[in-house]
Amino acid sequence: MLDQPIATIEKLRVEFQTKDGPVVGVEDVSFDIKPGETVCIVGESGSGKSVSSLSLMRLVEYGGGEIAGGRLLFNRREGDEIDLAKTDQGLMRTIRGNEIGMIFQEPMTALNPVFTVGRQLTEGLRLHMGMNRKQAEARALELLNQVRIPEAERRLKQYPHELSGGMRQRVVIAMALACEPRLLIADEPTTALDVTIQAEILALVDRLKRETGTAVMFITHDMAVVAQMADRVVVMYRGNKVEEGTVEEIFENPQHDYTKALLSAVPRLGEMTGKDLPEPMKLLGVEGHRTDPIPGSEDVLLEVRNLTTRFPVKGGFFRRTVANVHAVEDVSFSIRKGRTLSLVGESGCGKSTVGRSILRLVEPQEGHVTLGGVDIIALGHDGLQKARADMQMVFQDPFASLNPQMQLMDQVAEPLRNYHVVKGKELQDRVAQLFDRVELPRSFLRRFPHELSGGQRQRVAIARALALNPKLIVADEAVSALDVSVQAQVLNLMMELQAELGLSYLFISHDMAVVERVSHDVGVMYLGRIVEMGPRRAVFEDPRHPYTRALMKAVPIADPHRRKSEKELNFKPIPSPMHPVDYEPAPSEYEEVSPGHFILTTDSGY
């Protein structure tokens, strides 16, 4: 009985009806999930991994899909087996949430913005478990403590928008676990989260699985997460299962070419240790070629001194400033020509605000920013517009930074038109060359953003940033939303451009393994200050600040034999960056521990 699978997917086929006829989302997939087992479904966007999970929940119909073939057998609590593909939606409502729980990728869309967290948690308990209000509230509090949300009682009365991304995701996990389901489906539950929160959530799902015997179907494109979580792995590619095996078999002896390509594209933390590679190197990626390192030059391009940015918090009847959020506090660094400085840290540490303050997309309170000898902070409107031709930004979400109603040709041409660089036929040629540069076919010139994949859209954003031949590009989490192999291609492209054009990058990221690959220098940020700064090798091979060490420890390793236990992950909660108006923080002071390697000596709060 124990070995009988909780869920069996047999020859599943899912089709979506479109204007051009049916499109196959999943062609032919079969696998099963046993009690107390974690099965990881791996693949890139569009491989059909999420469609498989939505079919199991019978939610795929609500997205325009239909189950065209196959059986979805589910072993219910009472011991009778049913085929979910033929079950009517009434019975599915009882099973959903009660016997199959689901954690969605995007916590903000999975929670209802108009109800408190407490109300959303108790709803399922009262509906499925027949609890009264008091029992449900007690159980909700217990669940929030179980997922380690600080100040759980206060959180029950709050609304989703008042919580950070990591906390919202914990609430979604608590909701999925509320009725102790037999099967938990987790669809990319940590993609948008910081390493430290990701590490805690992975350990949490693992612990809950051991304690309750729940089976877990875990969908992800991150091979390091697979190594941390999986018992068995199913690799999907274009709607089909191409390989299945235990986690050790897949990592140590992958059979299918696609699995091998996926594994080779993963940047691994510590991969460059001990090798004498001072400069960034391209990822081996799918093509398997390495290029020469990029040394850059010693000339300083950007100099940032004592940058401080605070956001006022208004309150009271007259909307007076009652407090300030200290987003960036006394930050100094310099970037040399043709080199990359990476800023790493968790959400809310101020790294994006640093990038935006340098470009004056937000106005800093104090500090100096000089780019190529020009003081950016002192410039008026016209001077700033002129200076911005030398510094461009690539944002995290290319869909939000591109205009959905303009053809890509016009979007890339826009900066050239604004600055009257070229006209007419010359303009078209220039845009076509930029498309060649970022390795996009010229046929895409007439397309719109929604017709491209995420990685292709990010290439368009890079082409637009390159249009004016800038000296500095600020890349704000530019690859964090992309699949591993696409991420490898975009990073390689950025490094090629750096080698050819002598670009300097300020690379903002929370992914330590990527940062290790692309950086010459690294700054680690915590609560608005840089706590450690130095050449890449010094910071990664000899981290001195306790926060840098905690960050390194949290990074999952793509090796199933080196899993993290929950005991290793004891992170301190991040204190609030909000302070009263009259609060004057101490200036940042540093100690040089080795040439160019500095550590903050002022109390950073960690």
Automatic annotation (TrEMBL):
CDD domains: ABC_NikE_OppD_transporters. Residues 9-263, 302-552 form the ABC transporter domain. The keyword Transmembrane does not apply. GO terms for cellular component: plasma membrane. This is ABC transporter ATP-binding protein. Belongs to the ABC transporter superfamily. The lineage of its organism: Bacteria, Pseudomonadati, Pseudomonadota, Alphaproteobacteria, Rhodobacterales. It is found in: Cell inner membrane. Signal peptide: none annotated. It is a peripheral membrane protein. GO terms for biological process: peptide transport; transmembrane transport. Pfam families: ABC_tran (PF00005), oligo_HPY (PF08352). Keywords: ATP-binding, Cell inner membrane, Cell membrane, Membrane, Nucleotide-binding, Translocase, Transport. One of its GO terms (molecular function) is ATP hydrolysis activity. PROSITE patterns: ABC_TRANSPORTER_1, ABC_TRANSPORTER_2.
